[in-house]
Amino acid sequence: MRSLGLCAAVMTMCAGSAPAVAETMLRIGTVLAPMDPMGQGLEKFKAEVEAATKGEVRIEVFHNSQLGDTTEMIDQARAGANVGTVTDVARLSSFVPSLAIMSAPFLFDTYEQADTFALSADYLAWGDALKEKSGLMMLASNWYQGPRHLLTQKPVSTPADLAGVRMRTIGAPVWIETIRAMGAEPTPMAWGEVYSALQLGALDAAEAQPTAITGAKLYEVVKNVTKTGHIQLVTALVVSAEAWDQISPENQAIVRDLAVESGRYASRLTIELGEKSLADVAASGVSVSDVDLAPFKSAVAGVYDMLNLNAEVASVNKVLGR
């Protein structure tokens, strides 16, 4: 009996000293460079989630398309892999069409406006619908990557200057129709292929936010950056719903709160580094210019009607009190 008691005591001691087993592992990827604000935000998110959940939720971060292009990572997550990514919300609109409003042209004037709307009841309800319809869980939708500008080989002053220009854009309807309305030929392509496509002439142009221009060194393969800011790139952190459901409700609340706070951290970095990025682009010899936005705004005015987003525009205006 003493022997059995000793064994029990040893087992109890071993159990007490055993390391906690991670409740789940989330592998979160991005197509951007590690020093991009999104990459820095994800590293902060990783550290704070692991600390706050006492290691019960662990996160691995993969930069520079190590887990594939954004679409490939989304497909992996939908298939049930413990994968997540930071994605433009328009890619998710094939499941919940209303989500396309976050990428609508010339809709949000500031990051603060987008952040406010991303936490509104209407928007959060669309996020809930996304889980049901796609197998993706949206943790936060306030990860701001900056204003999208035109990257071209020839100067651009009006939409007419974009006639016949093959321009890389994101392969979602609101992006495609916005670029087409602005006068160019929208050409969806994986982000990791854009540099070589511009270099070899397979593309004539692209559109990107300042930190991505420097992160991908696109200033080496274009001659002009025109500051249209036609879309404010507000992105979402999404993960596999199957992996998400393995996390306890208490830890889910922690993870979602930290996703919002890390999104704000990354967004502040985006804003701080954006002007420096453009200055660096100009210093490299690329022409960086402002332009009269009125013709571009007029050109894209029909996109809301075309994609049936007028009700969503009204929701944005109501939330923002305008």
Provide the domain count: 2
Radius of gyration: 22 Å
Low-confidence stretches: 1-20
Q: How is the largest sheet built, in terms of strand order?
A: 7-6-8-5-9-11
Quantity of strands, as a count: 11
Give average pLDDT, whole number: 92
The second-level CATH architecture of the largest domain is 3-Layer(aba) Sandwich
SS-derived structural category: alpha/beta
Can you say what the CATH homologous superfamily of the largest domain is?
Answer: Bacterial extracellular solute-binding protein, family 7
Could you characterize the architecture of this molecule?
- The protein is of the alpha/beta class and 322 residues long.
- The protein folds into 2 domains: 23-145 and 233-274, D-Maltodextrin-Binding Protein, domain 2 (3-Layer(aba) Sandwich), CATH 3.40.190; 149-231 and 278-320, Bacterial extracellular solute-binding protein, family 7 (D-Maltodextrin-Binding Protein, domain 2, 3-Layer(aba) Sandwich), CATH 3.40.190.170.
- 45% of the residues lie in helices and 19% in strands.
- The chain contains 13 helices and 11 strands.
- α2 (37-52) packs antiparallel against α10.
- Residues 1-20 have low confidence and may be disordered.
Concise overview:
The protein has 13 helices and eleven strands. By secondary structure, it is of the alpha/beta class.
Brief descriptors of the model:
C4-dicarboxylate ABC transporter substrate-binding protein; globular; alpha/beta; TRAP_DctP; D-Maltodextrin-Binding Protein, domain 2; 2 domains; disordered N terminus; 13 helices; 322 residues; 5-stranded mixed β-sheet; TRAP_DctP_sf; 6-stranded mixed β-sheet
